[in-house]
Amino acid sequence: MLINRLSFFNYVLSIERGYKYFTRYSYFYFINSKARKGYGYGLDWIWIEIRRIVEP
Fold it and tell me: Within a domain: residue 40?
């Protein structure tokens, strides 16, 4: 299965937009707000790691 590099990056960007919208209106926002206070890692930390790999 071949993946076009351009379509892959568009897919990643659409995930980023959907992620910011989704976390604002779900229980993941609660998890992330807890993580910012030091209760855990949360999805924000994971997404930063993903961005570090995808965007050099």
Answer: yes
Secondary structure (DSSP) of 2-53: ---HHHHHHHHHHHHHHHHHHHHTSHHHHHHHHHHTTS--HHHHHHHHHHHH
- Does residue 12 belong to any structural domain of this protein? no
Domain that holds residue 29: 23-56
Per the CB < 8 A criterion, the answer to whether 14 and 6 are in contact is no
- Residue 54 is predicted with a pLDDT of 73
Helix (H, G, I), strand (E, B) or coil at 47: helix
pLDDT in tens, 24-33: 555 555 555 5
